[in-house]
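Quick note —
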Amino acid sequence: MAYRQQQSFDGSTHELHQQSAPYEDQQGYDNGYTEGPSRVRGGAGGYGATGGNDYGYSPKPKKRSKWLLIGVPVLILVIIAAVLGGVLGSRAANKSNDLTAGSSNGTATTTTGTGNAQATSTATDAGSAAASSAAANGGIARFAVATDTYLLPVYPTTTNTAVYFAPTVSARTNHQWPSDPDSPSTTAPRDHPRIIAPSYKWDALPDLIANDAYLAGWNATIMANATANFEAPSITYTLDGGLTGSGVLDVARELKVRVKNWGYAWRMTKDTKWIDRAYTELNVAMGGDASIPFGDGDTRWNWQHFLDVGEFTSAFGIAYDWMYDGFTEEQRTALRNAIVTYGLNYCDDAYTAGPTGANAWWLAVNGNWNCVINAGCSIGALAIQTEDTTGVAARVLAASVTNAQGNCLRSVMSDGSWSETPNYWYFGTTGFAELTSAVTTAWGSDQDLLNTNENFHLTGEYHMYAQGMTSLFNYADHGPLKYSATANSLLFMGSAYNIPTYTLYQREQYDASEPFSMFWYEPSTVGAFWDGLALDHHFDSGSDDWASMRSTWTDNKGLYVAMKAGNMTGHQTHGDIDAGDFVLDAMGQRWAGELGSGNYLSTGYFGGEGEDAQRWLYYRKRTEGQNTIVLDYLNQNVMTQPPTTYGSSDDAQGSSTVMTLESGSTAFYTMDLTTAYNGTSILRGVRTLNQRKQVLVQTDITAPDATNIQWRMHTNATIAISTDGLTATLSLGGETMSVVISNPTTGASFSQLPATRYASDPPLPAQTDGEDADQDNGDTTVLAIELTGGTYSLQVVFNPQWEGSSSSDFVTPPNVAIGDWTLTSHD
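Predicted structure written out below.
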């Protein structure tokens, strides 16, 4: 087992378990609800394409254990990025690991009983000392003072007027990159190293580290990671779902993480031990381990699951380029031959054949597969461009950038929404950033990748507003473990698009400490990301159509609520039937949350998005598995795209970390779900109340002929229902939420139901290879309200029991028809 460090905001590190595939018994990686058996297969993307076309396959399964409740403050297994995608306030862990609670400052830690404890301690001391030294040299100290149990930054409650101001870029000479002294081109690329981090940046880095607390801390963490990787055994090549399943994708991603760390350590120290260790690992990937029982000949990087090719080629390209002057000529030749034989030849074949070629459907996909694979093929080709004698590197580069422009770059909608899901955003934007950065540094020009989609830069907002107080508004599939994907595309976009807010936001996040961040980060960026940032946002492109509302950007115990309308198709077969779905955070807990992915290996899971698709038979994809209304026990119409209305008092946070709200501060979001229910009139809305201390979820229903109307909300909380059934008291993580039916006061009552399929649901498809028919959702339950046919204005009010509050602090909203909602309608 290998380990990877992640750094907190106090300079300490978390030791995260990074295992070789398969990841049996691994659980969720989103701090939220359970994801049940969350070690889903399939890599950085699904197996279908836009519109429900099934290009894919069903990989073979591995057995997985049940998720653990997250009332226990343990560190989730993320080697990956910070997102994690689960249901409510839970955290899951590999049952074989000894996980312990965090320290008193809110920083989670783990113990493993291995020799890496010293690495953790060393990184903690080094990170803290480096950050302090950088601040003392005139740099700005880190804003966040710790991380909470969800690994989110914790900010001080005092206002530092000297550094908390609107985001901008300064002209401090000891805090900025020097000008590029070279003038590379497509035909005369820069000398090695040319990918992501050219020589002039390596030369400037030590001084910047000495003067920037963020760079100093990240540097210490990366070096600790490199040491931990150095001491670990070589990666075990274990198939995941067979070669035509997820193959060796996890192997490729772990290799990529390792060689980035070792390449960084080599360039910073020139110690040849990093070169030797890197080549040992690369040699295994080239076939040097005779015990590996698959992938003979030129199929070793598994073109049958093309993400594997992309990530292996990327890993080898980075290693070849960053460590070029450390390898012997014999080693360089071997690496170059591997890049061509196992990687670029297959990339070239795919570009030549087009999307109808064998396993090349990704060429026509607006999603993460296209971004990740084009990035990998390009990085491998750029790395060997000046030494390649076969001509394949030039052919690949002539095709990859153009294909990415027409597909990867089209993955962002007009409002910034990612075409797949908030979790797949990580994979896709990481691929985009790596591709664009590599091309720009090697050739001196981004080849119009930055401008192909004039809205691409808006996707940073999409990510920021999808992040709640505990985890993402993680609707639909959440994807696999985020080995080589982080949110550091925000650092790249912050610099490339000159959006300092992105840089300032991401530099505080726990996943910021990795090698590419050192070069994407613009250290001359200053200010507070939250200064002037609106609390609310409506994403209205129609791809999903959703709204995000919060009470603060800097207090993780504040309030966050998000709701979506539609549509359910066109997300690379990753969507749910979930119009009207919502999540709710308050007091540091997720009270209403998402179940996340189903089992990617289930029969028909990626078989399409039509009304009769087998995907919609699985609980986590069905309407009943969402936080919305179920009519007569049936799914919503998957082709709906409900019209929506949004309003906000347009509050923005100021420079202070303490947000003060005016009495009229509010936001609302409504939708007409009539088409979702095949002509039955159902309108739904959410709004904040009482200076954003309370939330109202209202559903106006006209369904006289309905047999059953069910309001459903998935929660990990313990539920106690009052005698009259009008109040449900939820308890979670030592906090309490009171949920009240304020209208109607007769004929409606709360009940608690299991998070399982209805008895009347159509049967599930027959499963193969011992797969479970549907997932066990553990202790997640459903808070429900059941009504018979009729006309209702169902008002459910959420009253978080804030510290120091009393019953007199809460308001009962008036009953206003959703069509009449305005900013002042509930004053």
